[in-house]
Amino acid sequence: MKRSDFRHLERLRVRWAEVDLQKIVFNGHYLMYVDTAVAGYWRALAMPYHETMEQLQGDLYVRKVTLEYLGSARYDEQLVVAIRCGRIGNSSLQFQTGIFRGEQLLVHGELVYVFADPATQTSKPVPPALRELFTAYEAGESVAEVRLGNWAELGPAARVLRHQVFAAEQGIAADLMSDAADEDAVHALAFNRFGLPLASGCLLQAAPGVAKIGRMATAASVRGAGLGASVLRALMEQARARGDHEVMVHAQTSANGFYLRAGFTPHGDVFHEAGVPHQEMRRML
Fold first, then answer.
1. CB 189 within 8 Å of CB 231
2. Which residues contact 146 (CB under 8 A, 6 or more apart)?
3. What residues contact residue 197 under an 8 Å CB cut-off, 6+ apart?
4. Distance between the two ends of the chain, CA-based, in angstroms?
5. What is the phi/psi pair of residue 204, to 5°?
6. Average pLDDT of span 235-247
7. How far apart are CA 51 and CA 2, in angstroms?
8. Where does the chain show beta strands of DSSP type E?
9. Residue 126: what pLDDT?
10. DSSP-derived 3-state class of residue 71
């Protein structure tokens, strides 16, 4: 078993509280590491867990876990926890895991989940849509689709996501969720394979040759899975195609790192919009 055998890799660092009197990670904590990686696997699938299971009218229950210990991790070491879906049965899902320090395999194991009715906890067949999602991801395929369109086409889905991120999460007034500029903007939304909108943004014209990207929002449950970056790339490509040579954003300061990684640089002083600190950022196309 090698790290390269896995598509999903979850990185973490050993904490002080996880080390026992032998000065190595207590054996039970490795299962917590695996569980953390499973949560990351759902994000990599662009699959908000609770919403998806409710939509599929079922849930996943652990039937069996086995771990084999080959070596020990120590305080403050950086580990990689790898997860892959190895086999899908009629109602069961078998996952394989490996915990690595560098390229050294410390722990490996197997998890078996059963898809079941939440009320009775009796097994049900794995839904075809869920089966196809696991198969596609492990085959290296994309698990989300970015759609471009106008407000009439994408507005209803964008409103849902904006309310979830801006109003419910950040406390921004609901009447600031949209305005007249949306009618003239190009909108981009990332949908997962279950049709859920998970990331959004829009493209405006700030000045001749200068594009402005705004209303960037990503559902909290899938942040870090690259969906916001996919929306940003799609909007920049659209701006480049229409002849713009520069793009700007009014970024919430908490998102500065996201835009820096995308090649943007800060311009001017921090200012406030809707009570939230922002920073203008720009990049050439």
1. yes
2. 188, 189, 190, 191, 230, 231, 234
3. 157, 158, 160, 161, 189, 190, 191
4. 42
5. -120, 175
6. 96
7. 33
8. 8-13, 59-69, 78-88, 92-101, 104-116, 144-149, 186-192, 197-207, 210-218, 246-252, 265-273, 276-284
9. 97
10. coil
pLDDT digit string, tens, across residues 102-156: 999 999 999 999 999 999 999 999 999 999 999 999 999 999 999 999 999 999 9
Q: Residue 221 corresponds to which tokens in the numbers above?
A: 């449950």
Identify the pLDDT of residue 177: 80
> Tokens 């915990």 sit at which residue?
99
pTM for this prediction = 0.90
**CATH number, domain 144-284:** 3.40.630.30
The span from the CA of 52 to the CA of 189, in Å, is: 18
Residue partners of 37: CB distance under 8 A and separation at least 6? 8, 10, 81, 82, 83, 97
Q: What pLDDT shows up at residue 273?
A: 86
Q: Which residues pair with 107 in a beta bridge?
A: 69, 99
Token pair 């990689």 is found at 80
> How is residue 21 written in tokens?
């009197």
Q: Where are the alpha helices (DSSP H) in 78-226?
A: 128-138, 151-162
Average pLDDT over residues 89-98: 97
Residue extents of the structural domains in the chain: 3-138, 144-284
**Which pair of tokens denotes residue 81?**
């926890």
Q: Are 81 and 10 in contact (CB under 8 A)?
A: yes
Looking at domain 3-138, which of 3.50.30.30, 3.40.50.150, 3.90.230.10, 3.10.129.10 is its CATH number?
A: 3.10.129.10
DSSP notation for 151-194? HHHHHHHHHHHHIIIIIIIT---GGGS--GGGGGSEEEEEEETT
Per-residue confidence (pLDDT) for residue 150, from 0 to 100 = 96
Neighbours of 179 (CB within 10 A): 10
Q: What is the mean pLDDT of residues 178-192?
A: 93
pLDDT at 176: 80
